[in-house]
Design brief:
379 residues, mainly beta, Tachylectin-2, Chain A, six-stranded antiparallel β-sheet, five-stranded antiparallel β-sheet, 2 helices
């Protein structure tokens, strides 16, 4: 989203019984391309703030309560038979308004996907390193994570340099989820995209055995990215990315706002998309218009989630897109906190014990989870 309307959104886990599907091709409902329905196994957050947690900030040298205010917007991955969640945590420094605290990433693990043990200190944070200029003050936000073919974990996240008003997608890699190497901006710091402000990047995955792994299509990896409009980029190594451009040499625009619908303000990339037998399923987050022109069944400014289907042989080609949200805030913990109008934001999606586990931020304040049966289209 734009910093002028800065907030971080999330995805609620409420299945809507009837889903209308706008189509550019054959009947998507009969094909059964939609992922879900997702339901809540627990009607409560699975990760909440922990004011007692402290950490010595390498920038200031002071002890900070790094997850005192909010824990939200999570990434997820399966490792050694467990689900690991990397979640955004905000400390209690800065002004008491959205976007003015410092964010770091905590790590939690679970054997059932519902009950988590978390490390006492963050595993990813601003430091005196090559990315300090891009992450201080402000921090590291809104992660998505995938596993590469060689077992390396690749993290996309938002770098937020608050005083300069600059944000971009950063790339980092790890072998153990605890020690990370930062590689800088996804599109590089030089060239035509060096000064671009962009966020929310989700790398396409496919099923390999019993887990989801970054997928190659036509010899390249693909990443749906952006807020306001959802766009596309490619890579050969999962670290260095190049935006896919249109005929005018601008980043190709794939999804944008639609008047009168749940995404009437804008769409934004969600968790890593799924390559299925039907095509690429992109789960995306959406904001309803605040001042008219939105979906009247949703509160003004409410964030919900949709799904879109793109061709597997051409990730730029839209095949179908829902006209109504497939999930939206329902529970109190999804409609209170930093954003009481109702926000939910999906960023983590894993295949675990023959189920999909979807991890989402609740009202910019908590982490929630929803589950769905393993899609037959992944087989």
């Amino acid at each position: 989203m734009k910093r002028a309307i800065w907030k971080v959104f999330s995805l609620a886990c409420v299945a809507i019984p009837m889903v209308c599907v706008a189509q550019t091709g054959s009947n998507a409902q009969k094909q059964g391309w939609l992922v879900g329905p997702f339901t809540r196994p627990v009607n409560a957050p699975v990760i909440s703030p922990a004011p007692q947690s402290t950490f010595t900030d390498p920038i200031s040298g002071k002890q900070v309560h790094w997850e005192a205010l909010h824990t939200f917007n999570p990434a997820a991955i399966v490792r050694d038979g467990k689900i690991y969640v990397l979640y955004r945590a905000e400390d209690d420094t800065g002004a008491m308004v959205i976007g003015e605290h410092t964010s770091r990433l905590g790590l939690a693990e679970s054997e059932d996907g519902l009950h988590f043990n978390r490390l006492p200190e963050p595993v990813f944070y601003p430091a005196h390193d090559s990315q300090q200029e891009n992450e201080v003050p402000g921090g590291v936000e809104d992660p998505r994570i995938v596993e590469g073919e060689d077992g390396t974990y690749v993290l996309t996240y938002t770098q937020w340099a608050r005083t300069r008003g600059v944000y971009s997608v950063g790339i980092a890699t790890s072998k153990d989820l605890r020690t990370w190497t930062k590689h800088g901006k996804a599109f590089g710091s030089a060239g035509k995209y060096g000064e671009l402000k962009y966020k929310s990047a989700a790398i396409v995955t496919h099923r390999v055995g019993d887990k989801l792994v970054a997928a190659k299509i036509k010899g390249k990896y693909w990443m749906y990215w952006g807020e306001i409009q959802i766009r596309l980029a490619t890579s050969t190594d999962l670290i260095h990315w190049t935006p896919v451009e249109d005929a005018s040499a601008k980043p190709v625009e794939l999804l944008k706002d639609r008047e009168g619908k749940f995404d009437s303000a804008f769409p934004e990339s969600g968790p890593p998309p799924l390559l299925t037998k039907n095509g690429i399923v992109v789960i995306y987050n959406a904001k309803n218009a605040e001042k008219g022109g939105g979906d009247p069944s949703l509160a003004p400014g409410m964030y919900s989630v949709g799904e879109a289907l793109f061709r597997a042989d051409d990730p730029t080609k839209l095949k179908a897109r829902v006209d109504q949200p497939v999930f939206r805030p329902e529970e109190e913990f999804e409609r209170s906190g930093q954003y009481a109008a109702g926000t939910t934001f999906a960023e983590g999606l894993v295949l675990y014990r023959h189920k999909l586990f979807l991890y989402y931020g609740c009202a910019d304040s908590f982490v929630g989870v929803a589950t769905a049966p393993e899609p037959k289209s992944l087989e």
